[in-house]
Amino acid sequence: MAGIRRDRDHIYIIGDRGVGVFLIKMSPIRIVRIPDKEVRRFGKENNCDGYAAVAALCWRVIADHRAANGDGKPLEPENIVGIASLAEAGAELSNLEFSFGTNMSASAIEAIRGRNRSLKMALCYLTQRTGNNLQDAVLLDDSNADDFAC
Q1: Which residue among 10, 53, 71, 144 sits deepest, i.e. has the most Cβ atoms within 10 Å of its Cβ?
Q2: pLDDT of residue 26
C-alpha cells in the first residue's frame, strides 16, 4: 500500500455514514466535520448518495493535488463516477496502513483500558473530560504501565 509522503502535511479524510465526513490536517492540527445532516442534504439536492458524492469530491481534491505536483494524473469525469460507485458500494478507499471504525462509549473504553496495558495512556486521554483536545500518548510496556495513572 502506498504511504503518505512525509514532507507534506498529513491529511486524512474519514467518512462514516450516520456521523459525517471528517477532514483532518496535521501540523498544526485542523479538524473539519461535515455533519451527516449536511451530507444527506447534499445527496438529496443532487439526487445521489451524499457520502459517495463527497468521497468522490474529496478523492478528486487529492488526485488534482497529486497531478499538480507531478505525482499522478487528475481524475477524468468517468473516474469520479467510478469512485462514487465504489464508495456507495462500501469499498474502502484509502492509502493508510489501516483504518477502523466502531461505536464504543467512554464507559466501555474505561472498563477495558486496564486490560490493554500498552494503550492505557491513549485510552485514558481518549476518555478525559477535561484538558487538551489533542494529546500525544506513548505506548507503555509492562514495566511502566502501572506507573501511569488515569
Answers
A1: 53
A2: 78
